[in-house]
Amino acid sequence: MAVPAFTFEFEGGKVEFSATIVAGKLIFSYETILTDPDVRIDLNGFFLDFGGDGGSVKSVGSIANNMNGGNNDGYDFGKVLGSVGGNDEDNRAGSFEIDLSKFSFPVGTDLTDVAAVLAGADAGLRATSFGPDGELSLKLVDDYTPPVDDHFPELEQNISNVLFYFKDKGEPTDTDANGDGYILIKIDDVPDAASDDLDDWYGDVLAFLKSEKLIDDDDELLGVAIKGGGGPGGSNDAEFFELDGDTDADPFPAGFGTINPGGNADVALIDESILYADIF
Questions:
Q1: Residue 150 lies inside a defined structural domain of this protein
Q2: What pTM, to 2 d.p., does this model score?
Q3: 20 to 30 Å CA-CA from 146: which of 203, 230, 246, 249?
Q4: SS3 for the chain, per residue?
Q5: How do residues 81-123 score in pLDDT, each as one tens digit?
Q6: CATH number for 20
Q7: Which residue range is the domain that position 207 belongs to?
């Protein structure tokens, strides 16, 4: 599953890069989020320095597509995203992959783990046609920061069950029983003894789902709905939480706003139901 990797902020918006690793390939996907509709931007080049110790790559595609002044240490990898000064459509989103076998990493690095591969890395982003008139250029840099594992609050009451929401982005799987393009997996009968902070055990659930081939690396985890049961706070309706590094509740994904996995869920939307005891 793709996880946040780099965020390049500029006046009027930002570009977010997420990453996953599949079969020895580091796969980046990126999208531009504009907060000012009058701002234009055309992404031209992405640069990556594994370990943050500099490299030989100074430009990519052409000598004009460079990070001179943004990072003079050089990079290990460069990728052309658009065209500098071209008349084609602005490049704002896309994906590409990096063959990790072509690079050296410290002995013991887990090449299946994004956080391990990008530890200490920094990245650069070259953009042109920026601004309301499209006459400016940008050279943006960002250091890799591992995602903070604090996405869910600690409930006052015991967790009754949770519902994982995945977007099926890879090959269609049998898990998507209703063929709607989403995979909803319910973890039921969570015991009172289980931690009431889902941060403590959601990773184990994901590992189990992968091992059972219910999800794959391409599937995107949109978030998790948590239903509180008994305990000091009594029961409550389910609340949805994205994996965004804060513990505030978020809106349910579009089309699923009425789901309550605690009893009145539309069971036709739930693709798989697993007992907590079958995982732990």
A1: no
A2: 0.60
A3: 249
A4: CCEEEEEEEECCEEEEEEEEEECCEEEEEEEEEECCCCCEEEEEEEEEEHHHCCCCECEECEEEEECCCCCCCCECEEEECCCCCCCCCCCCEEEEEEEHHHCCCCCCCCCCCHHHHCCCCEEEEEEEEEECCCCEEEEEEEECCCCCCCCCCECCCCEEEEEEEEECCCCCCCCCCCCCCEEEEEEECCCCCCCCEHHHCHHHHHHHHHHCCCCCCCCEEEEEEEEECCCCCCCCCCEEECCCCCCCCECCCCCCCCCCCCCCCCHHHCCEEEEHHHCC
A5: 977 655 678 899 999 999 999 999 999 999 999 999 999 999 9
A6: 2.60.40
A7: 159-278
